[in-house]
Design goal:
By secondary structure, the protein is an alpha+beta fold. It contains two helices and seven strands, in the order βββββββαα. The chain has helices spanning 88-93, 100-118; strands at residues 6-15, 22-29, 44-48, 58-64, 71-73, 79-82, 84-87. The strands form two sheets. It has a five-stranded antiparallel β-sheet with strand order 1-2-3-4-5, with no helix packed on it. Strands 6-7 form a two-stranded antiparallel ribbon. β6 (79-82) and β7 (84-87) form a beta hairpin. The chain is elongated and about 40 Å long.
């Protein structure tokens, strides 16, 4: 894995430790290359946007959970961002520490995961 702020010309593989999603990433850090004014609140795994030739366009793949440090993608079934990234298992175990609105969002996600797994 790359160190924060490091860019690689060779593709390194990102893998979500929750869902198994994989994708090549070219940068890990808070300030993506070729972007002058963007600074993220977390160290992110970033890939160049394959759908546009513009250099400054990118996609955020994921980050580390701020509690358990697992690598998690940004998919709503795997993680949530509230001041920092939390994988859903950690967010659900610490649900009482989140604002009420976010607690409701986490409960909805819990219900949608149950319906997906029972189908």
């Amino acid at each position: 894995m790359m160190q924060p702020g490091e860019e690689s010309s060779s593709k390194v593989k990102f893998e979500c430790q929750l869902c198994g999603f994989t994708a090549p990433y070219s940068y890990y850090g808070q300030k993506p290359p070729n972007s002058r004014s963007i600074v993220f609140l977390e160290e992110c795994f970033i890939m160049k946007d394959p759908f546009t030739p513009e250099k400054g366009k990118f996609l955020i793949l994921g980050s580390h959970c701020s509690l358990c440090n697992k690598i998690t993608c940004v998919n709503g079934d795997c993680s949530i961002f509230y001041t920092r990234r939390f994988c859903l298992p950690c967010a659900k175990s610490a649900i009482q520490d989140f604002p009420k609105e976010l607690q409701h969002e986490l409960e909805k996600r819990k219900l949608s995961q149950k319906t997906k797994s029972s189908s």
